From TrEMBL:
Gene name of this polypeptide: mtnC
Cofactor: how and how many bound: Binds 1 Mg(2+) ion per subunit.
Database matches in CDD domains: HAD_EP (cd01629)
Coiled coil ranges: none
Organism in which the protein naturally occurs: Streptomyces sioyaensis
Protein name stated in the entry: Enolase-phosphatase E1
Lineage, broadest ranks: Bacteria, Bacillati, Actinomycetota, Actinomycetes, Kitasatosporales
């Protein structure tokens, strides 16, 4: 049986953690203050800043210095807070547009996408990165624009936090397929646990390139089937 829907994590699963932490995060972190100064009056950025103020318990439209300070602290602490992820998405979009940034997906990700599509599955992305950030990353990969392969995107704003079973329940309702026909692939056990609690099938992606155990070593038992990359999931996962 083919999974009706495959849902993929990004960092460490479709794409290199090194790219996210070594390229994307520092790029956005260095530009937060300048971005707010240049775009703080524009609707999209204003909404983000107002959300930062709301979370901080400040009246909307206050001193943007406070919002910049909060956003910078969240970036340094790698907080998966929606307004930070949305601001990163805006900054990265400008970086892709200027040619300073490119996206990254592992080569096996491309092969896995093809295999799932040929088998009739729909493919979704679920990341803490904003939907815009996800679309831009997949639009600018070293293999070209992969967006047409994807049926949809979910982030913490549209679905909720990745460690909450309710988020996976919300995605199930949105994709409209039976819960046992949804497969989630991620490198993070806490995310897989939440998906399994919601009734999904799971695939733990433990990539040697990401520092995961080599072939001879066994990852700790979690009850989640283990695969060395996404192509292995596409070829071997029992659905
Ligand atoms: C969509 S690219 C940036 C990924 C990101 O911002 C992030 O925080 C990683 O989250 P993930 O859920 O993909 O591990
Ligand atoms: Mg991940």
């Amino acid at each position: 049986m083919t999974a009706a829907a495959v849902v993929l994590d990004v960092e460490g699963t479709t794409s290199a953690t090194e790219h996210v932490y070594g390229v994307l995060f520092p790029y956005a972190r260095a530009r937060i203050a300048d971005w707010v100064a240049e775009h703080g009056h524009e609707k999209e950025t204003r909404a983000i800043l107002d959300d930062v103020d709301r979370i901080g318990g400040r009246p909307a439209g206050g001193d943007d210095k406070e919002a910049v300070r909060a956003l910078t602290e969240w970036a340094d602490a790698d907080r998966k807070v929606a307004p930070l992820k949305e601001l990163q998405g805006l900054i990265w979009t400008a970086g892709y547009d200027s040619g300073e940034l490119s996206g990254h997906v592992y080569a096996d990700t491309l092969l896995a996408l093809r295999k799932w599509l040929n088998g009739g599955a729909q493919i979704y992305i679920y990341s803490s990165g904003s939907v815009q950030a996800q679309r831009q990353l997949f639009a600018h990969t070293q293999f070209g624009d992969l967006r047409s392969r994807l049926s949809g995107h979910f982030d913490t704003r549209t679905a909720g936090g990745k460690r909450s079973p309710d988020s996976y329940r919300a995605i199930t309702r949105s994709v409209g397929v039976p819960v046992r026909q949804v497969l989630f692939a991620s490198d993070t056990v806490a995310e897989l646990d939440a998906a399994r609690t919601a009734g999904w099938r799971t695939a733990w992606v433990v990539r040697p390139e990401e520092g995961g155990p080599a072939d001879s070593a066994r990852p700790p038992a979690t009850g989640h089937p283990v695969y060395r990359n996404l192509l292995a999931v596409a070829e071997e996962a029992q659905l």
